Amino acid sequence: MGLPMLRLENITKRFGPVVANRGVSLEVQRGEVLALLGENGAGKTTLVSLLYGLYAPDEGRILLEGQEVVISSPRVAQRLGIALVPQHPELIEAHSVAENLALGLELPPFFSRRALLQRLQALLQDHPLGVDLKAPVHRLSAGEKQRVELLRALLSRPKVLILDEPTSVLTPKEAEDLFREVRRLKERGLAIFFISHKLDEVLGLADRIVVLRAGEKVGEVRREEADKDLLVRLMVGRGVAPPPKAPPPREEVVLEVEDLLVPRHGFPLQGVSFALRAGEVLGIAGVAGSGQKELLEALAGLRPYRGRVRFLGSPLPQDPARLFALGVAHIPEERSTGVVGGMSVAENLALRTYPRYARGGLLDYGRMEREAEDLMRRHRIQAPSPRTPLRTLSGGNVQKVILARELKEGPRLVLAMHPTYGVDVGAAEEVHGRLLDLVREGGAVLLVSEDLDEILALSHRVAALHRGRLVGPIPREEASRERLGRMMTEGRA
Ligand SMILES: Nc1ncnc2c1ncn2[C@@H]1O[C@H](COP(=O)(O)OP(=O)(O)OP(=O)(O)O)[C@@H](O)[C@H]1O
């Protein structure tokens, strides 16, 4: 093997008392995909942020093609040929795709819009990612936004490409398309870092796998030597079991939706009818942007709709605060909408029940923090203290905060969209366990997920949304990945 494209030597990065990376050394070659695996908070995002100039390491050095480099900002990273596709799309929602891409270019002082569009079209031809340059970003699904971020990264013609959990919100088909593109980039000689919690993807794409635990490198295996079991054990130090089967649902109907209509761009959601019983999980699959998000947001009181919706026999109020008080929890698609980054972990955990902490015109922070400590322990939320600002938590830990808050009152109905988005395999097992506990106690779960295995593992019945219309539901026993795939893409059961 020649000189590695990139080499990290003894990298340590601290945030106050937290050691996010401790003495990490690794290298990646040209034309190689290196996967970084590890539990939530293990230090993966921090490590790649150092490579992209978002933070400076406290110790250690970085060598690019044998030369030591100081990556002091993302601009410097780009000039050195290092590009990053972030965990969450960081696009300007009000602007078009083309405008967002233009922001990543070093353009001359005067340039014509046409010339810019031509250059972007050429890029699209080279990387056929199926992106509409003129579409405003706020109309794109999470998967489409991810592709725009990838295009933006490719604009600088990088030598090193970092993909931080790029498939969390992609459908299996979108993920396959992305992988095809990643393989092409690899063949062109790019060195690629790939972070994912999905072990099948890691095994399908990576040449080598580095496992981090609590900031330290605890393992490095070549693809040929790896299997799922080994990777799970390296990551969490134990094996992980598939979720147990939930008992059959009860008679009582918790949610009844009749002829729901939600106006939206593209295909409006219409004629959607289904009933959800106590103790039942109804899984809804769908190609991103088929109306899943709108369905859950309408039921969560965040979007106007027409139609008849009854919750435990009474009309469902269209007000998020009243809904929560009645026992309706909501796990939103994009976790950034479910939390306030500048507030502490304790405040975020208390967001739904703030008035409860009022004492003589002030907030009882002592009580809030004690309760937060308890929830943090139970949900294994990694943060130095309940006072830690939420925005400093790792992505998976933010997701755990949302889950802890939404499930803490024992809701009757959970509207869950990608509930295990970005959480590690151990934590995903716990989330599934919590949802099933709730179901056993008579709660109902409307589960929207793009992970078909998750839907098939948890649901009693499954349905798909196809262009705004509901296909199914059908009993779980009659469903398979293939049949669900057809329901999603062809609109028939
Ligand atoms: N800006 C920051 N300030 C303080 N602590 C931070 C900051 N960024 C990260 N951390 C902490 O560093 C540790 C590593 O976080 P990091 O985001 O790198 O984990 P990760 O492996 O990417 O996790 P996930 O799988 O959940 O995305 C965590 O304990 C996190 O809370």
Structural summary, described in words:
- The chain has 493 residues and is α/β, with parallel strands linked by helices.
- The radius of gyration is 23 Å and the shape is globular.
- The protein folds into two domains: 6-236, P-loop containing nucleotide triphosphate hydrolases (Rossmann fold), CATH 3.40.50; 253-327 and 409-490, 3-Layer(aba) Sandwich (Rossmann fold), CATH 3.40.50.300.
- The chain is built from 16 helices and 22 strands.
- The strands form five sheets. A six-stranded mixed beta sheet has the order 6-7-8-3-9-10, sandwiched between helices.
- Adenosine-5'-triphosphate (ATP) is lined by residues 15, 18, 20, 38, 40-46, 382, 392-397, 422, 424.
Instruction: Report the uncertain regions.
Output: none
Could you name the CATH topology of the largest domain?
Answer: Rossmann fold
Helix content: 25-40%
Give the end-to-end Cα distance, rounded to a whole number of Å. Answer: 52 Å
**Strand line-up in the sheet with most strands:** 6-7-8-3-9-10
Shape: globular
Beta-strand segment tally: 22
The CATH class name of the largest domain reads Alpha Beta
- Average pLDDT reading: 88
Domain ABC transporter: 6-239, 249-492
Protein name: Nucleoside ABC transporter ATP-binding protein
Keywords: ATP-binding, Nucleotide-binding
GO molecular function: ATP binding; ATP hydrolysis activity
Structure, briefly:
GO terms for molecular function: ATP binding; ATP hydrolysis activity. This protein has 493 residues and is an alpha/beta fold. The chain has 16 helices and 22 strands.
